[in-house]
Amino acid sequence: MEILGKYGKEDLAILYIARYDEKVIEFVESVQPPVSREQKWVLILSTLYGCPLGCLMCDAGEYFFGEITKEGMIAQIDHMISPRFPDRKIPIPKLKIQFARMGEPTLNENVLELLRELPKIYDAPGLMPCVSTVAPSSSKKFLNDLISIKNNLYPPGQFQLQFSIHSTDPELRHKWIPGKIWSFQEIADFGEKWYKSGDRKITLNFAVAKDSKIEPKIIAKFFDPLKYFIKLTPLNPTSNVLKHKLDSGITKENVKDFILKSKFEDLGYKTMISIGNWEENEIGSNCGQFATQYIKGDVEIKKDYTCNDYNLLN
Ligand code: SF4
Q: Which key words tag this protein in UniProt (predicted)?
């Protein structure tokens, strides 16, 4: 793997752009101050070269050049882990490996192969994989296989599953996530098979735009607050968000008393506004954004990179 550039800050998030198998990928490591890296470290991997789904707000969906191999995903992890833990022994209580950068992970069977092997490759008692999906209709076999991987290979509570559903209005949901996707009933039926006592709650994630339609009472018809967790995220300023003139419904100004959060809480849902870090958003380290800009020739990366040696040209 050839690292083309890196951008960000050691104490917050570092985004890497790399060439692997003649194609461009990006991956991220991040910490969440004030929690130290010794306590929690998050590695965010790409699973596809681009993404065929083309969600409205995501830059990764502008092209698709295929699946990343298991070795290609291990190369991403190793690049972040090796400088600190060359022997692959990682004593961090929470080591999250998120399959949430470029690509819908359920479209790549190599992700399942990697998840079967991860506990053997890394000596990491805090290892917690996090699979985030928009639930394309083709994901059935992948997600069913994932149930036995979670149950057989990971300790209870050390596997996270997220469905990014974005809206309770079917039309708007399909506008944001083109193509065939599971209905809420299909997600709920799967959730019954997935969830067992001791598991982490399944996350329902909404990227919230100003004119989003999100009705907590509709969610309550399908999803049990004892098994599901609500995550509300600001709409990140990707090129596609700007192109489609979408505005984030969650801002620095309104985040403190965001009414939608209390509406979910009133129905019994544990609810989080996942703002990460505003500075991280300003860095622009959003899903697929940099690799796409690199491929389009919109960025310049210095060869002898240091942090911040990544210059947007427009
Ligand atoms: S949001 Fe996820 S599924 Fe949608 S285009 Fe981006 S990477 Fe693909």
A: 4Fe-4S, Cytoplasm, Iron, Iron-sulfur, Metal-binding, Methyltransferase, S-adenosyl-L-methionine, Transferase
Task: Find the domain containing 159 and state its range.
Answer: 2-312
Residue whose CA lies nearest to ligand 1 atom number 2: 104
Q: How many domains does the chain have?
A: 1
Give the pLDDT of residue 290. Answer: 66
Neighbours of 231 (CB within 10 A): 16
Residue with tokens 């999250």: 96
Q: How far apart are CA 271 and CA 275, in angstroms?
A: 13
For 299-313, write each residue's pLDDT tens digit. Answer: 655 444 333 333 332
Of 64, 104, 292, the residue with max ligand 1 atoms within 8 A of its CB, to mutate for a pocket test, comes to: 104
Q: 55: CA distance to ligand 1 center in Å?
A: 5
Q: How far, in Å, from the CA of 103 to the mean position of ligand 1?
A: 6
CATH number of residue 220's parent domain? 3.20.20.70
Q: Give whichever of 3-7, 191-195, 304-308, 310-314 has the largest mean pLDDT.
A: 191-195
For residue 141, the surrounding DSSP H or E stretch is helix 140-153
Give the CA dihedral 159, 164, 165, 167, nearest 10 degrees. 130
Ligand 1 first shell, C-beta below 6 A: 51, 53-55, 58, 60-61, 102-104, 134, 287
Task: For residue 180, give every residue at least 6 positions away whose Cβ sits within 8 Å of its Cβ, in sequence order, or none.
Answer: 136, 137, 138
